[in-house]
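#struct-pred

JT: dropping the chains for the assembly here, can someone run the whole complex?
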Amino acid sequence: MAAISPQPTFDGDIFSAPMVHTDSNLLSCIEPDYKPFIPGNSLRRMTRVLKIGLTAALKCIQDSGITTPGPIVTGTGKGSLQDTEKFIKEIAAYKETALNPTPFIQSTYNSVNGLIALQQKCTAYNNTFVHRGFSFENALLDSMMLLQEGATHTLTGAFEEITREHFYIKSRIGFWKEQLTDNRALYQHLSPGSIAGEGATFFTLTAAPTPDSYAAITGFKMLYKPAAGKLSATLKDFTTPPDLIITGRNGDSTYEHYYAELDQCFPGTPQLPFKHLCGEYDTAGAFGLWLAAQLLKAQQIPQQWFPGLTEHLPATFNSILFYNHFYGEQHVMLKLERV
Amino acid sequence: MITAIGDNVAGNLHQLRLQHSGLGYSSYIDTIYKDVLPVAEVKHASESLFALAGIPVKEGYTRTTLLGLAAMREALQHAGITDVQSAPTGFINASTVGGMCDTEKLYFDIINPEKTGSFLQYIDTLDCADCTQRIADIVGFSEHIATISTACSSSANALMFGARMIKQGLLPRVVCGGTEALTRFTLNGFNSLKNVDKQFCRPFDQQRTGLNLGEGAAYLVLEGESFARANNSRILAELSGYCNTNEAFHPTSPSPDGDGAYEAMKMALAMSGHSLEEVSYINVHGTATLNNDVSEGKALERLFGEKVPLFSSTKPFTGHTLAAAGAIEAIYSILAIQNGLIFPNLNFSERMEELNISPVTTLMEGYPVNHVISNSFGFGGNNASLVISKYEG
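RK: done, full complex below.
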């Protein structure tokens, strides 16, 4: 696994890494040193989401120790916003003449996948899903099908960026809190909207566990715009009470009722939220899954990231229920178990 | 389906038989290239597309969504599905730029704090999921939805993903395809790559200089065989093979020898269990760009040797409809099988110097077509081939 996120998740020990905080309502990624991963001449042309996407993918391959190229499947809600914005503006500024094609090429949603394949000389299956809170999740489903069909492993991930301009655009339709809110206090400020985030997260998935596996995915369900009662019924049907629940709670009062349903389904089961670490974005679920897998393997919690939330946690935990939704539309539940 | 040559499948077949191209000049894109670069535009203003889409005129519905809805209505009706909830039904859509066709006209208002108004209804239509969800919500899909974006191979991959979900027993029925509306953004994108022909495109011709963009939408209802039989579905054809492969050669160009195209066709055909000799027709990707046609042509020669089957590109009819192309051409492949037709590759006059093969140039009727390969190759090295076969059940 590998994650580039607003927290120091790329290198070093996450159990001692400090928590990054801001009250700007926008959590930006900590960008790593790209040079060990991407040649300088390529780096100069690439925009941010291409860099974080490709680098997280390459780091994930390193981390897994599985270097044979396999299928590459990703999800992104928005692709390269920087390139899309740039090309729209250049069309206007240069009145449709003498345009540089690079932003157009990089704005295509599958450009990160193409780069990973190119860098890895990987001619296997390659697919990109672009469906808001189901982008990463469809990539995960596709990967699980590939493993069923006989692939030994897949490289599966997600990448997203937030730009100042897109932050403003989404603020016009209530995506973010009106008051500036410190991410450390996200859950204490229940009001309409959340705080924005971004990140690139990759996983190597294998059909059978290896000594290096972080966790096993043992259950997976997506629900689109569930009718009243459907979420609770599905959650109860999905799993017996797990040892720990990781939730996508994000301080947004408009859709908090879904998380309240989760609370009622599993009263007394300890919970940890993760959006104060990464912010809200289409593919934040991938970061949540990364966190859950880290905890299962290490059997410890980065205490400093969850001040005041870790008192009632069990000493060991073998199963985690992950539940997340994106603005009430795309709901995802995953069951993870220790291997 | 809906394309520049027809509002439905019958309309498309009619124009294919008449060999009438849909290429012309845009009435609806706001561009300086309106009268310079040909496009294959659907002959309806967005207002009149609402009627085809079966919904009242309303803010927030992009041309991408309306084209998709029009095609979706026909696909469901043709399959005799009055209620998509009658069996668990997934919806796998494909899009390359979402609702850019409408948002590009409003973008500078959207980012201007001093501007406000009903255009804000379009804010969330830029991404690719918007059209999928609006179509899903109107038609009633709730079981599984997804949107794929792998450039020009997007809807071929949507068909593949749906077929695999059925094979794995996740769903008995999935509606798959894609929708694409012409945009100033995409036209300028391809033009900046010097990939657009000022004349009507000439696939596989020595003098070709590029593609013409098109718009449209197409959906196919895929069902598992046992479900289709139990359900008494009218089976039009069988999706007998498919392959998705990446060329890992260049961000926008295919390899000169067509490694990716070769691999995709070879593996898809192997999966179908049919031999090279059994392939009756290949609906090639055939965009008429310098690189694609060399690469795809070389791949055909490498795979089939001296016996390359009849092949043609239907892009001179529909333009290159990007995310919709794979699904549109899958329907054309089925029409070829059902009607014993080989569609002509319009605008061809001179064989390419790199190749020993040339496409079919006149309409062939009464030709038995049993197995068709349909190719879709895209940016990012994303290659996809489908094998569509006559159903012999």
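JT: nice. Chain B has one domain: 9-389. Residues 63-78 of chain B form the longest helix (16 residues).
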